[in-house]
Amino acid sequence: MASPLSTKASNIPPELHGLTEAEAVRRLAEDGPNVLEQAERRGILQRILDMFKQPMFALLVAAALLYMLLGDLAEGAIMAVFVLAVLGLTFFQESRSEASIEALRELTETHAQVIRDGAVHRIPASGVVAGDVVLLSEGDRVAADAWLLRANNLLVDESLLTGEALPVGKAAGTGDPSGPPSQLGGEDLPWLYAGTFIVRGQGHARVTATGGRSQVGRIGRLLGQLQLEPTPLQKQTARLVRMLAGLVLVLCLTMLLILGLRTGQWLPALLSAIALAIAILPEEYPVVLAVFPALGARRLAREGVLTRRINAIETLGATSVLCADKTGTLTENRMSVSALVAGSAQAPVVLDWPPPVQDAASGAEPDMPDAFHTLVEHAVLASAPQPFDPMEVAFHATGQRYLADTVHLHRDWRLAHTYALTPDIKAVTHAWRPGIDDAHVISTKGAPEAVMDLCHLPESERGAWLRCVEELAARGLRVLAVAHGRHTGSRFPVTAHDFRFEWDGLIGLSDPLRAEIPQAVAECRSAGIRVIMITGDYPATARTIAAQAGLPEGGMLTGEELNALSDAELFGRMPAVSVCARIAPEQKLRIVKALQRAGEVVAMTGDGVNDAPALRAAHVGVAMGARGTDVAREAAALVLTDDNFASIVRGIRVGRRIFGNLQKAMAYIFAIHIPIAAMAFLPMLMGWPPLLLPLHLAMLELIIDPACAIAFEQEPAEADVMQRPPRDTRAPLFGAGEMLAALGQGLCVLLGVAAVYAWARFGAVPADDAQIRTLTFVTLVASNAVLILANRGRAGHVLAGLRVRNPAARWVILWAFAMLAAVVHWPWLNQALGFAPLTLLQQGVALAVGISSLLTVAGLRWLTWRVRGGDAPAKAVSA
Question: Alpha carbon of 749 to those of 39, 275, 675, 745, 855: distances in Å?
Fold first, then answer.
């Protein structure tokens, strides 16, 4: 059950060792997983009943019953088989969709760090049991109700339970809890609750209740589930279906009255009216809108992008501005110490580190000059004892490698107090107690300006050190300052400003740009997407990294400048900005709002607690999976498993592919229903024998459904999908223009089908009614294959689309012709469907006319494309 990501921690006190693995397994079996009671999953029977509530299935079942009432038991049985086949196909598609969503739930499950058998394990939160000792740090979501054993500057957001907007401080309890708290929440109490968030600090807590036994479980709150409300596309399509349903109702009533009054046979008239309803109603739309995004989310997961909210896929492909963090997103987040600066402000000593090995043969490590020992020592002491942050990992690695004796002496030191980084003091300060007395060593590291303030450096020295900072930053290094001090006494001041610090120097860290970033940025620019790099680094560092990434020169905005701008001024400034430097997380929200005010579709990356408002406000919030906090992941719509900017770009490509394939499928669905509806309505309106009955339409559904939900879903992305401008999110997926274009395609097919019908009925050698129906059906199926092929390619590029490989489309078309061969040549099925054998000439004419409609459909799509201006050039990206 424990994750392989476990760490032996020999310095963990015995009282924090937690459970043994065997005991944890036993308790998990007794208490069940640490999950809240969720809405029951739909069983197979419930899903089938829900399908029968849909209009299409209700009409098909009604038709089967009418066949039996009319005494056509064979036709009724065949109709029932077709209904079951359509039902099975839809059930299969729904299962794929639900399986995809369920898999995403598992992928986006939160994790917790627990101590078992004296080692730290990272496990899914569902595996936490009562008695576990959990490690908590800034940004974590508390996995279960717990009793706080140790707390270091711990601040918790309990608004989920209490409604209080402000976070509250927590203090460690003494002994064991005697029972549940009398009230939820509260300042300086040792109780922690499942679902709340750690805003600041660290702590250890022992789990007291999990799952439904926790406070949040008792009040029935559901957390961490994907939001499955109707998306904008689903709402648009629902309006379209309702509009068509109104038309269907009017036409069906008209047909019922005309046929009933004309013949006096109301049951056959009702059957014909049902056939018309099935022919017109595009019931496939809800299917594709459920299947495409769900399977698209699975595709995104394979690209390293987890989807927490399905409707984000709609927006992802329309992104016009991508705001990306530098560290870990554009860079490898693999920091190493590259430069050390110590000495006096008048004569600083700059040491490139590590220096080249003098004796390559011996491989001996170079010695670190004594002048830099204090600098590195206090950089290590100002870092977490078990570091996670890449900068602190680099400090520890340097200390252990070059100052092994000094680091060994620190093993018995106890961390007595911590001052976390805040918006006011951008530095982390640790107070260490080396012995049993009250003497403490104080170490701090952080932004050079902040550490200079803590050291109260005079302006002359500040200027000299800032010049050093600029020189290091111009090399693309991230620069931190280090200082140390002393403190005696068991009481600590409120802020680190009250200590007396001594300046130690600067450390420059390198974090190489990911190799794939320049190509990804170039791809964004060709797709009409502006990339804005956001970083807390110095402007010179940011400018160097931006140049390496291929961002346009100029357009720098600093956090200090942003604070001085009004919202209106920021709105006017942002179109020219490509790099934001010295930006605090809280300032990201203003950047997002300024871009949105300009009409941009904004994707924003983030990983910290303070990034959550910007992630929630952005059209697409993207959280980091590897280094991101639970708070950020909860606020975001997408999570990057590898924290890589290139994954976002791949996700945008997938998002554009999904949207394009949806448009193709919806155009195909609308177009194929035009000839089907016309051939179901016109013969009966003219007093001719009915042509297409529910039996035939149910069989056509067995061809149309896999075409729209399988063939088009698996259509590859078009070659130029990332050379087009972002789509307008205000434009409907299937608007008036697309509807008219699809109507034109349907009319092209209708002309061919009608020509075959006319040739068969009024030609030199008129065919009988069964042959006419068979000829028309063959032409419809062949034309259906044409519509699939024609809509695979983009308008104006139909023939190019035919060359793109899509095995699913090929198999769907082969399946359609196999079914056609069966109904035409299998005598039993042929007679049951009211078909008749055809001569070779008749079959050839029907197939030729159906296939030749490809020319008319392709010509119409090309003409529409030319009228609309062809391929619109990608919009210019602001420099």
Answer: 46, 20, 6, 6, 10
| Full domain range(s) for residue 125 | 6-31+112-218
3-state SS of 674-714 is: HHHHHHHHHHHHCCCCCCCCHHHHHHHHHHHHHHHHHHCCC
DSSP-assigned letters across all residues of 282-338: -THHHHHHHHHHHHHHHHHHHTTEEESSTTHHHHHTT--EEEEEIIIIIB-S--EEE
C-alpha to C-alpha distance for 715 and 660, rounded to whole angstroms:
9
* DSSP string for residues in 838-851: --HHHHHHHHHHHH
Mean pLDDT over 306-326 rounds to: 84
My answer on whether 678 and 809 are in the same domain is yes
Measure the CA–CA gap between 592 and 424, rounded to whole angstroms. 23
Tell me, yes or no, whether 202 and 250 share the same domain: no
In a domain, 825, yes or no: yes
**pLDDT surpassing 60 at residue 797:** yes
476 and 584 within one domain: no
DSSP codes of every residue in 719-782: TTGGGSPPP-TTS-TT-HHHHHHHHHHHHHHHHHHHHHHHHHHHSSS---HHHHHHHHHHHHHH
Query: 689 and 636 share a domain?
Result: no
Q: How confident is the model at residue 315 (pLDDT cuts 50, 70, 90)?
A: confident
Q: CATH number of the domain that 567 lies in?
A: 3.40.50.1000
- Pick from 510, 527, 545: which residue ends a domain? 510
Looking at residue 228, its pLDDT comes to 44
Q: Are residues 561 and 535 in the same domain?
A: yes
Bond from prior residue into 354 cis (ω within 30 degrees of 0): yes
Domain ends where: 510, 545, 574?
A: 510
pLDDT of residue 98: 63
Buried b (16+ CB within 10 A) or exposed e, 69-104: eeebeebbebbbebbeebbebbeebbebbeebbeeb
The 10s digit of each residue's pLDDT in 109-126 is 678 889 888 788 888 888
Evaluate whether residue 209 is within a structural domain: yes
Which run of H or E residues covers position 615? helix 612-617
Is residue 224 predicted with pLDDT exceeding 80? Answer: no
Per the structure, the count of domains in the chain is: 4
- The residue among 353, 360, 414, 365 whose CA lies nearest residue 385 is 414
For residue range 342-390, list pLDDT tens digits in order: 998 888 888 888 776 555 555 566 788 989 999 999 999 999 887 877 8
Q: Which residue has the tokens 């060359």?
A: 803
Are both 118 and 148 inside the same structural domain?
Answer: yes
Angle of helix 645-685 versus helix 266-280 axis, rounded to 10: 150
467-500 residue pLDDT tens: 999 999 999 999 999 999 999 988 899 889 999 9
Least confident range of 45-59, 150-164, 253-267, 523-537? 45-59
pLDDT band with cut points at 50, 70 and 90 for residue 9: very low
Cβ contacts of 810-818, under 8 Å, gap ≥ 24: 812/703, 812/706, 812/707, 812/710, 812/711, 812/788, 813/711, 813/785, 813/788, 813/789, 815/703, 815/706, 816/703, 816/707, 816/781, 816/784, 816/785, 817/781, 817/785
Which is higher by pLDDT, 732 or 27? Answer: 27
The answer to whether residue 812 scores a pLDDT higher than 60 is yes
Whole-prediction pTM value? Answer: 0.75
